[in-house]
Amino acid sequence: MSTSKTVDHGLSEKGLKAGSVGLIGAVVIGISCIAPAYTLTAALGPTVSEVGVHLPAIFLVGFIPMLLVALGYRELNNAMPDAGTSFTWATRAFGPWLGWMGGWGLIAATIIVLSNLAAVAVDFFYLMLAQIFGNPSLADLTRNLPLNIATTLVFIAGACWISYRGMETTKSFQYILVAFQLLVLGWFAVAAFAHVANGTAFDATAIQADWFNPFAVESFSQFAAGVSLSIFIFWGWDVTLTMNEETKNPKKTPGRAATVTIIVIVLIYMTVSLATLSYAGIGTTGLGAGNPENQNSIFAVLAGPVMGPFAILMSLAILSSSAASLQSTFVSPARTLLSMGHYRALPKSFGKISPTHKSPGYATVAAAIAAAGFYIITRTLSENALWDTITALGMMICFYYGITALACVWYFRAEAFHGARNFFFKFLAPLLGGVILLVMFVKTAYDSMDPSYGSGSNVGGLGLVFILGCGVIALGAVLMFLMYRRHPEFFKGEVLGKASQPYNP
Amino acid sequence: MRYVVGYSANARGGDAVNLAVALARRQGAELDLVMVMPEDSPYNGVYPPVAGFGEILAEQVSAWLDEGLALVPDDVPAQAHIRCGESEAEALIAAAEELGAVLLVIGASSTGLFKRFSIGSVASSLLHASTVPVVLAPSGYSRTKPITRLTCALGSRAGAEDVLRTGIAMARRRELPLRLVSLVALGPGDSDATIHDAEAHLRSVAEAAQGVEPDDFAKLDIDVVVGHGRTIEDAVDALDWKKGEILLIGSSRLAQNNSIFLGATANRILRALPVPMIVVPRNYVPLPDSLFRTTALPIVAPNIPEAPQ
After folding, report:
1. What's the pLDDT at B289?
2. Do B53 and A335 touch (CB under 8 A)?
3. How many domains does chain B have?
4. Do residues B77 and B187 both lie within one domain?
5. Which residues in chain B have Cβ-Cβ distances shorter than 8 Å to A358?
């Protein structure tokens, strides 16, 4: 009777709700992935320390390579939808070794951002406690190293647990979260300009046209560092471009949503960075945006003086947005690790799926342990861990995005010169974007060897940012060789072969 | 006749398959093993975006279903299905309705250390929403031989008569001896209830049930027992449970028409129960055609030929 048993493998639907997201929904998703409140507090200070008043210019310029690479990303995502993303695409295009490193770069970037998100959430958690109880000493608890590390680990573990259980974020929750962030950021900007107008600003600075001129940045080093930081602030925007079946109108919604998202984001970034510069100046003392003390998270310092008693709203906005991102960001490295385990580029256990929650259980826990480990190391080595991790993160994004963009160029090479659309989207845009990002990566990596780079933390005369960024890449290379020694099938191209898109009009 | 099994690739799924096999053997029913793939909400804001996880997951789920089918003995026909849904319970109910299943079999969670039934979230949702009778397999249920006795638990509130009718019909259809447990004595502090109180309660339930004549109790092969204990859990423990037994229980008055809502008492019984439990929706009408060939009172008797399926 065994013939009576059949598996109905026909999976008519994908694991995504088709046609449920309209334009506004897609914009909300895009903004939530960027998490502007978190991004600004983390990146504004470090960027000011590099490029000073030219912050608005660098923010604008940073968008260009992001856009170029995202266009290539979209092409790859349409041609080869795969949970391994950069890993799978780079393996297809360049073979197993570069593919492995591409995947590693993506995982490393997400692991770094996870530890940074958790740390920012913890800072604002204590700040909010201080604001609630009217006791400023509570905010200083975050400077207590063991307590800070312990709290951060709790946050990471919590987010890992939620992600492992596969909890879903609802539409209304995401709408509220995004609206709240935008509202609070807008409030901050208005309040800052009001202080400037009333003469109560810390260091009122008049806005000048020169602030928008990227060529006025003093050196190429500063320019490169600024751009790799501003890649980070737009990281997340491209999610709108990769949406497809889940939108109500797959032909138009993603493009329109990407446009609207970028307009909203650029407006809010410009307003907030101009407000910050006009209110606080770039001085290196007191509330000045150039004060190294303030680089960790600028709003933790400025929200109080600017917004008065309502500063608690800023804490709440950043805490909620970073906690939500923390949880959602876990999915990505977990799925890439799972995909690498699935293709036997990592030990098989990474490919395990939890039978109860149907999530990549092993990979999720591995990502959490890595993020926790990264945070502990950075926090103990660095005088200013958040600043250094954000700079290292910018580098890592440049690395894996650069590889991904070039993988796009190489994968579609047969089609590249057939038609203007192919030429632009599959060749020119990703090629330019990839080259820009890799140049930024090399330049930043080289500069960061200087012990005074970033926050000025160093180990044996080598800048900590270099050690973090290149150390992680070197660690990846070591792991890759270990994996090759133990399970060479993947590296012999037996699992995932090299391929390219044939020209097939 | 078909039963949907909410399968999962762990001990809990195995319990459910074993119980479904035990039930199906008595009835000549077919099994439909269903696994539910979670549906990603786009509002999760997963970044960097990852597509294609669904395919890896689907591959894994198919492999799991093959393992599940391998647990089903050859004399029981079985099929497997993959469904997608935001809520696993919702998808299982939908599958049961679509496949025309008469039972939804699921394992209770296997994570409970001390209690036999510690309810997982999916089982719990089913017990509060299903429109199809839900059968719960206790943790570690390994018996695949047919069910040997049906116990029907009757409360003292409105709706008990429906449960009684269902119990009698089910016992008749499966040719099972029926045992009635009165929940009248299970009030807090009310420990001096006697078997007479219970019989009086059952009689009143039977009087209220259309088509069941109280006098028939004397003629039927029906056991009436009273469990004693300080708590409901103790009382359930004190009752004698056969290995192949199954307990039938009704829904709370809070249940919407034709759906299940496990009441507080049933919940406490569940926690102590060593045998499978079947929960029927409120106002459940057990497949009139296959159960009642006439409108006469269904009588539990040992030698009635099985109703045609």
Report:
1. 41
2. yes
3. 2
4. no
5. 37-38, 57, 61
Instruction: State whether B127 and B227 are in the same domain.
Output: no
Domain hosting residue A43, numbered range: 20-486
Same domain for B125 and B202, yes or no, is no
With beta carbons less than 8 A apart as the criterion, state whether A122 and A151 touch.
yes
Q: Is the peptide bond before B286 cis (omega within 30 degrees of 0)?
A: no
Nearest CB to B38: which of A8, A15, A170? A15
Average pLDDT of the segment spanning A136-163: 92
CATH of the domain at B268: 3.40.50.620
DSSP element (H, E) containing B31 = strand B30-38
Distance from CA of A166 to the nearest CA of B (A): 8
Picking from B123, B140, B157, the residue at the C-terminal end of a domain is B140
What's the order of all strands across the beta sheet hosting B78-85? A6-8, B78-85, B30-38, B2-6, B103-107, B134-137, B277-279, B245-249, B149-154, B178-182, B222-225
pTM of the model: 0.84
H helical segments located in A199-297: 220-234, 239-242, 253-280
Indicate yes or no: CB of A8 within 8 angstroms of CB of B74: no
Cβ distance of B74 and A2 shorter than 8 Å: yes
B121–chain A Cβ distance below 8 A for any pair: no
Choose the closest CB to B56 out of A246, A325, A339: A339
Q: What is the pLDDT of residue A367?
A: 94
Q: B14: domain range?
A: 1-41+55-140
For residue B116, being part of any structural domain is answered with: yes
Q: In this structure, is residue A6 part of a structural domain? A: no
CATH code (residue A34): 1.20.1740.10
Express each pLDDT in A83-120 by its tens digit: 788 899 999 999 999 999 999 999 999 999 999 999 99
| Residue A455 resides in a domain | yes
Q: Do B10 and A324 touch (CB under 8 A)?
A: no
Is residue B46 situated within a structural domain?
no
Please name which of A34, A40, A99 lies closest in space to residue A70, comparing C-alpha atoms.
Answer: A34
Local confidence band at A228 (pLDDT 50, 70, 90 cut-offs): confident
Please indicate, yes or no, whether residues B125 and B151 belong to a single structural domain of this protein.
no
- Tokens 């990264």 belong to residue: A374
How do beta strands B245-249 and B277-279 pair? parallel
Beta-carbon contacts of residue A267 (< 8 Å; ≥ 6 apart):
none
Residues B63 and B122 in one domain: yes
The one-letter code for the residue type at B173 is R
Q: Write out chain A residues lying below 8 Å of B56, CB-based.
A: 83, 338-339, 342, 351, 353
Query: Which residues, 6+ apart, have CB-to-CB distance to A368 below 8 Å?
Result: A114, A156, A157, A159, A160, A330
CB–CB contact B51 A83 (8 Å) = yes
Interchain CB distance below 8 Å, B46 and A174: no
> Quick one: pLDDT at residue B195?
66
Chain A residues with CB under 8 Å of B55 CB are 83
Residue B75 to residue A1, Cβ atoms within 8 A: yes
